[in-house]
Amino acid sequence: MNRLKSTFDWLARRAENFLALILGALFVSFLIQIVFRYLLNLPLGWTVEFVSIAWLWGILFGYAFVVREADVIRLDILYAALPRWARRALDVITGTICAGIFIWSIPPVWDYVQFMAIEKTAYMKIPFDWVFAIYMPFMISVIIRCGISIWRGITGSGPAFDTPQSAGTHDYD
């Protein structure tokens, strides 16, 4: 069991490293774009394309593999005011709806990603199926997170059901 946990920890660190690499490359490309456009008056098209793709991959990869559930920002003022049984019911209902929508959309999204193999980006000539492929792991991650939310709603487990206690763990000073 310890070996499995250490393997997952190692994979989580590599995912964080990859996301940091994406963000670093995005920033450098953005700086190159500024220098060439505003200082040298030679706009570069590939930088705009790269920044767009890196941003897409950074957001979707980050949510799928790096962001922990406790780190997700939520507006839970009304949620926290509800009694525990209502919060559990809402978690089951919203988790079921969200997971259902994503599960229902898997086949058409997969078809679209495969279809986009016929097109390439304008400057960098990257096949669009590679650009959009990150959406599939993102969808699976959302479905798994919704399943966990449903399970926690049914069983009453997890930090989501003790809002005052979990809110006290944040340092707002």
In a few lines, what is going on in this structure?
With 173 residues, the chain is an all-alpha fold. It has helices at residues 2-39, 45-66, 77-81, 84-115, 128-132, 135-155, 163-167.
Characterise the protein shown here:
The chain is an all-alpha fold. It has two domains: 1-67; 74-173. Helix content is 74%, strand content 0%. The protein is built from seven helices and no strands. It has helices spanning 2-39, 45-66, 77-81, 84-115, 128-132, 135-155, 163-167. The chain is elongated. Mean pLDDT is 88; it is low at 168-173.
Which tags fit this structure?
mainly alpha, elongated, 2 domains
Class derived from helix and strand content: mainly alpha
Number of strands: 0
Summarize the amount of helix as a percent range. over 70%
Number of domains: 2
- Helices and strands, in order, run as HHHHHHH
Low-confidence stretches: 168-173
Chain-averaged pLDDT: 88
Overall form:
elongated
List the total number of helices: 7
Major β-sheet annotation: none
Instruction: Quote the beta fraction.
Output: under 5%
How many angstroms separate the termini?
39 Å
Give Rg in angstroms. Answer: 20 Å
